[in-house]
Specification:
heterodimer; A: mainly alpha; MetI-like fold; elongated; B: alpha/beta; Rossmann fold; CBS domain Like; 2 domains; four-stranded antiparallel sheet; 15 helices; globular; binds adenosine-5'-triphosphate; binds magnesium ion
Chain lengths: 212, 318
């Protein structure tokens, strides 16, 4: 109870900074998420279709996945400097592998007979893709989106190390100054955002799946 | 002479990486509005023969003509829209309602909405699915039999020039299958269509086919009427295949006309009468029950069409 009160006082002492941090956090997530989708969806799609693409993709994914987030940022820093750009590039590197694999799995999961049938009825290849294949893969793609977005929201707490802002500021500085209420403000807000995003994607997924 | 709907000319198919032909030197003609079944054991090339028609598989050599036109000269998406295609399962779009599934090809052909709705209604009636009950349902909420009905309705949507069916009732329980077979026959009588129907079930091939293509090892072993396939098998393989099934099933599949022969006055007078629409199994039953050596076949119009002799049945069952 006392901690809660302290947290509240802390936020009230500088609400502007609190909301700016939330906005920065979400902004970093959104931008990197859009870039991740732009990279992962096409690569994952073609990896599902051809072994010549999938083998190098799987190898690179395995390599990237073993590098911890913090060291990704450390490695980037000399090249891209402090600021949002470094955080975004880092988050993209963290998010792309999982999202790519999810996309590949989702596309591979579509019954090939259904696609063959679509073609046999005279659908052009682009129509088979957009009208049949992607809608059928969509629930599984949402799985990937769910995990990736939660990973991103958590990972963005590290953005403060490269001076890109976000809610990590409270956690890192709170730990540094040994002010637990600061740490809690940061951590709980991050958790809250993650839970909200996770639940809304889950409910979207359920709505799609209930249909068929 | 009827039009030739489909003609295979020296067709060969070898899959990449395989050293044998899946289909080898097939030449045959299928007449318009014929119901032709393709019968053979697993791996004999039935599906391959079928899928070359809508170019899901490309032929290795030879030509296939659709109403006199080489399929390689046709726009593939355009002509596919006029070929109905029904497979065993997994053919329906799980993310579309029954109504939208059926409307697939009409939509591709840009029919207007009102026309599509009317046609969908008509088709669902044809396959005995209540329009209001089923139109908004998704395929996964339907039984296997209902799904196949939707598949057939969808394939018939634009009055196709040809229907290709690959074991459409293969995964359906025996009772429902028999019902669907009867309905398909009735539908065929009503809509008149050229149908190429793959099955590995001897009974189904005889029951449905006006003609049967017997395949083995990628080659056509015999292409003939059910009666000739049963009574005059072209070779050892055909003879073994058609004797493999239940003998009584074959009688059940064959209509009386195959064995009907002219009868004299005395035979007509003495003979027990049988409705000409019945099948041979019932003729046999009638003869056994009455200890008779022949029955008299009566046509639609009430006139005598001829007789069926017990000896002819025995010959068939040998
Ligand atoms: N896509 C493919 N790639 C390589 N080989 C194939 C392919 N499809 C079929 N084959 C081969 O071609 C031959 C004929 O196969 P097909 O599917 O036409 O047989 P089928 O008569 O339809 O058998 P079933 O009753 O089991 O469906 C088989 O030896 C099969 O292994
Ligand atoms: Mg087959």
């Amino acid at each position: 109870m006392e901690t809660l009160l302290k947290m509240w006082e802390y936020i009230a002492s500088n609400p502007e900074q609190y909301f700016t941090s939330i906005w920065q956090h979400i902004y970093l997530d959104l931008i990197s998420f859009i870039i991740i989708l732009a990279i992962s969806l096409p690569i994952g799609y073609f990896a599902a279709k051809s072994r010549r693409v999938s083998i190098p993709v799987i190898i690179s994914v395995n390599i990237i996945m073993v590098v911890p987030t913090l060291s990704v940022l450390g490695l980037l820093l000399p090249y891209t400097g402090f600021g949002a750009q470094t955080a975004i590039i880092g988050l993209v590197i963290i998010g792309v592998p999982f999202m790519t694999i999810s996309m590949m799995t989702a596309i591979r999961g579509v019954n090939p007979l259904t696609l063959e049938n679509a073609a046999a009825m005279g659908m052009e290849p682009w129509r088979v893709c957009f009208d049949v294949e992607l809608p059928l893969a969509f629930p599984t793609i949402l799985n990937g989106i769910r995990v990736t977005s939660v990973t991103l929201i958590a990972g963005t707490t590290l953005a403060t190390y490269v001076s890109a802002g976000g809610l990590g500021y409270y956690i890192v500085n709170g730990l540094g100054m040994n002010r637990m209420e600061m740490v809690y403000v940061g951590a709980l807000t991050v958790a809250l955002i993650a839970i909200c995003v996770d639940l809304s994607i889950a409910s979207l997924q359920k709505r799609v799946l209930n249909k068929y | 002479m009827a039009n030739i709907a489909l003609e295979y000319k020296n067709v060969y198919k070898k899959f990449e990486g395989s050293d044998r032909y899946a289909v080898s030197d097939v030449s045959l003609q299928i007449e318009e509005n014929d119901f032709v079944t393709i019968l053979g054991t697993s791996g004999s090339g039935k599906t391959t023969l079928l899928k070359m028609v809508n170019r899901i598989y490309e032929l290795t050599s030879g030509t296939i003509e659709l109403f006199g036109e080489n399929i390689m000269d046709l726009d593939v998406n355009e002509y596919r829209r006029h070929i109905g295609y029904v497979i065993q399962q997994g053919g329906l779009f799980p993310h579309k309602t029954v109504e939208d599934n059926i409307a697939t090809v009409p939509k591709l052909l840009k029919w207007d909405e009102k026309m599509i709705k009317e046609r969908t209604k008509e088709l669902m009636e044809l396959v005995q699915l209540d329009y209001e009950t089923y139109r908004k349902r998704y395929p996964n909420s339907l039984s296997g039999g209902e799904q196949q009905r939707v598949g057939i309705a969808r394939a018939l949507a634009v009055k196709p020039r040809l229907m290709l069916m690959d074991e459409p009732f293969g995964a359906i329980d025996a009772i429902t299958r028999s019902k669907l077979q009867q309905e398909l026959l009735r539908l065929y009588e009503n809509v008149q269509n050229t149908i190429l129907f793959v099955t590995h079930d001897v009974f189904e091939a005889i029951l449905l086919g006006k003609k049967i293509i017997v395949m083995d090892d990628g080659k056509v072993q015999q292409y003939d009427t059910p009666y000739n396939i049963l009574l005059h098998p072209a070779n050892e393989f055909v003879s073994r295949l058609v004797r493999s099934g239940d003998q009584f099933d074959k009688l059940r599949a064959l209509s009386l006309e195959y064995l009907t022969e002219p009868a004299n006055e005395e035979e007509i007078h003495d003979g027990i009468r049988i409705d000409g629409l019945k099948h041979l199994n019932e003729a046999l039953l009638l003869m056994l029950q009455n200890d008779a050596s022949h029955v008299i076949v009566i046509g639609d119009d009430g006139n005598v069409k001829g007789k069926i002799e017990m000896s002819a049945l025995k010959q068939l069952l040998q």
